[in-house]
Amino acid sequence: MSGIFDSVNTHTMRRTLTTLILTAFTLAAIAQPSTDKTAAWYNRALKTGDLAKLTYFFSQMPKGGDLHHHYSGAVYLESYLDWIKERNMRISSITYKPVNKGTRAAITVDSLRKNNTLYRNLMSLWSTADFENHYHDEVAPDQHFFNTFGYFGPISDNYKAGLAEIKKRALQENVQYVETMLSGVRIPIPSQKHNAALYQHQQEQSTAGLDAIFDQIKNSINEAAVVKAVNTYKAQLKEARAGIDDEQFTMRYQTYTTRNNDPTTVFASLYASFRLCAAERSMVAVNFVGPENGVVAMKDYWLHMQMFRYMKALPEFSKVHVALHAGELALGMVKPEDMGYHIHDALLTAGAERIGHGVDLPYEGHAAEILRYMAAHGKAIEINLVSNEFILGVKDGRHPIRMYYDAHVPMVIATDDAGVSRSSLTEQYVLLASRYGFSYREIKELVFNSIEYSFMSHAMKCSHKAVLRERFAAFEHDMAYMP
Ligand SMILES: [Zn+2]
What we know:
The protein is 55% helix and 12% strand. By secondary structure, it is an alpha/beta fold. Helix 17 links the parallel strand 9 (354-357) and strand 10 (380-383).
């Protein structure tokens, strides 16, 4: 030790040290005013309600990750039309669905694009555009929203192009990470002879003997079919995601199961989803999709959460993450008493690590316990303001966002289905700021949460946070010169 120091001229060393300290102070002095100036610029825009300035601000601001993101709902219909054209398919001018050439009333994408009336009709069916700005005989917004998937769903499997589009838009919006719900895994469904017994358990909400039934269903699933489905999925994903991850950007994937099926189908699909996650590193979590107020989803909710509990307890699935849509309900969609337990059970029975939406929190009987639990155990809430306003009609002071924030529940801001809502992550932040008045410092914390509460590995999170810090420094430097 001493040898090294002896050989260095102590005077030079002291001078170098002084210079280093001074440089550090100067850098800090420069950095701090940039942060302060940025915050001041933001405060002025917020105070005057200048939504154009806020839109500019948030479009430029680094936004870290988007953690509640549906792949097929993120692709814009303009791209879906391109895909239909590439496949030499047509659009039905009666149903507005993709159809094969030769089908009655089938028109080409080019003719559709030339006919403004037909094009606008398609747009209003495939997305939520124009839903509220003019009178028409309309279905309920939540129904309209879920219907859109029936139009583009069948042609959404052009994953390579879809992921490239999502990445391109993310980079443009200064987003460095996306965790997208890509698709489910299809396997043959085993005999449904246990459904009656499962319904009985649901009715009695009794766990006695339930796992034995789950064991039997699991053992009756065709193992060879599962292996084949998982391997096929992995191969398709490998091809689709080639070139997506680079120094600027990372994408990770979730798979999912649909809620609104009979219990054996849900169980078997869930098992396949867990198997895929356990076998593929980039597939980081299992989710649960479909309208939460659906008849089956409501009737079997307790049972569904038990299925997640069972899967999580299997040693081979102990490391599989779970994020769940829960509490995506508003008063009137279901009976009031059915709004009281979804978030609670998703967390404490199913073991969800993140909750999507959580909008019915004020109606949950255990709201205080939920908030304490989420804060204490670092379970994040994924906030989707645009989607909640359209699908649930919940906005402004009706949204429980402040209940979560004030209880120190980790929070992330996400898009849900930006292609269907024809929106962006930027717009979510504009609403967040203009409706709830979060400070710049608080918003910056939310952005860092979107990396911290992602399902990336620890090492990936560290490197993404370092990139994010650099991006914020550059952003604040630019904003300091903004008039
Ligand atoms: Zn969602």
